[in-house]
Amino acid sequence: VSKFAVIFGGAQKNIGNAGITITIVKKSLLPPVATPASPEVLRDVGLPVGPVILDWPSIAKENSLYNTLPIFDVWIAGQVMSDLVQLYRSKRVRGQEEVSAEKAKILYRVLDSHSDVYQVVPDKAVRSRMNICFRVHGGDATKEKEFLAEAEKIGFLGLKGHRSVGEIRVSNSVDLLMLTRQRRRAGQCQAVRKILRAICQRRIRRKPKLELSISIYIRRPVSS
Amino acid sequence: LNYQDIGVGICEISYRSSQANQVLAEAKNALAKLLSIPDTHEILFLQGGGTGGFSAVVYNLVSVWVKKRRRRAKEDLTVAIADGKEPGDIDQLQAKVIERLKREVERELKVDYLVTGSWSLKASKEAARLIGSSKVNIALDARAKNGGKLGVIPPESEWNLTKRKREGGTGSALIYFCDNETVDGVEFPSFPACLEAHAEDAVDDDAPIVVADMSSNL
């Protein structure tokens, strides 16, 4: 992290659901060390002034609560990350990295050993551990369609590549879990499942909407 | 639906409530722990997804660049006017600063992008849309070396980064890459050696300002 001035990422890939963008910014680029140019100066020199919701100094000053933050999304991400911290302990994100690398290795090995059928798209040195992109029979449209249909039959969903390139793409998340039966080690998946289960259980105790809104003010504990 | 037994659900609590603050603090702590984020860095939660991040990076880092240049222009010109090297008097300082700043923005403001896939390409296009393509230096276009197709990361020696000050250049306001390209299945195997900061970079504020989109491999 220390090598970067800024790291950002939408939460929806590995951390939670879409809605929040995690941004890690070096403090030396934020006030009081660095102050942004004033809107007047930017206008004077012909540069654009950005919307305040993308303005890191404003967001940092208000502890990310400058405008309404989708707290549910933050909560989900928090649950997933806490779970990963607990799961991998001192290994931290390295632990997750090992699992991902292992899963990617398994897949690439299978693809490479059937290179007459499957061709991995990127160069070997820069193959992604997260998105395994390959072609079937050199990109034969009929064969790829057949591959996707057969895959769907046995429960592999969403293997179709991005709409801009076609291809077949396996993303290193849930898809592969089914294949390698690493459910126990898949911290993220477990956390999400736990959350979904919790929501289901609580739904039974759901009270009428009116009462819920009243209890915002009186903070009346709900009897179980 | 009944968060911590307070009688209301997590979607209903105010984002300014103590519970929401606690949710935020816990998520921040977990992220800091998970990624071993040092105290030199701040964690922010924004909205607008990765695509919003494309714009935020440009707005914020260009603004920091302009502010730094403005401060230096002001210092230089104040001294020059006092020494009589710059015509005019101190009342005209503000106008002179803006004039010099305009020139520097025109000639020296650069943002560098390493295009290795669809997302970094999109980010570079957003930079061009916001500040003009003349200021966007595509330091690497992986397609150019691969017959128009993505799927490789050429060696660093072939990258065309804006020269740093100690190399006789003016430096870049930011150097951007997407660590893992989801559409193309391309990932940087490690942190690029040429983007490492060195002790001598502290002189003249010459350390590269490296920005990474890690949406898919954080």
Write up this protein.
The complex is a heterodimer of chains A (224) and B (218). Chain A is 44% helix and 11% strand. Chain A has helices at residues 39-44, 56-61, 71-88, 93-113, 141-153, 174-180, 187-204, 209-218, and strands at 6-10, 21-26, 118-120, 131-136, 168-171. In chain A, helix 3 (71-88) crosses helix 4 (93-113). Chain B is α/β, with parallel strands linked by helices and 218 residues long. In chain B, the strands form 2 sheets. In chain B, strands 3-2-4-7 form a 4-stranded parallel sheet, with helices on one face. Chain B is globular. Chain B starts with 17 loop residues before the first helix and ends in a 5-residue tail after the last strand. Chains A and B meet through strand 1, strand 2, helix 1, helix 2 and helix 3 of A and helix 1, strand 1, helix 2, helix 3 and helix 4 of B.
Helix and strand arrangement:
The complex is a heterodimer of chains A (224) and B (218).
Chain A: E1 6-10, E2 21-26, H1 39-44, H2 56-61, H3 71-88, H4 93-113, E3 118-120, E4 131-136, H5 141-153, E5 168-171, H6 174-180, H7 187-204, H8 209-218
Antiparallel strand pairs in A: 1-2, 3-4, 4-5
Chain B: H1 18-34, E1 41-46, H2 49-82, H3 93-108, E2 111-115, H4 118-131, E3 136-141, E4 174-178, E5 180-181, E6 186-187, E7 210-213
Parallel strand pairs in B: 2-3, 2-4, 4-7
Antiparallel strand pairs in B: 5-6
Helix pairs in contact in B: 2-3, 2-4
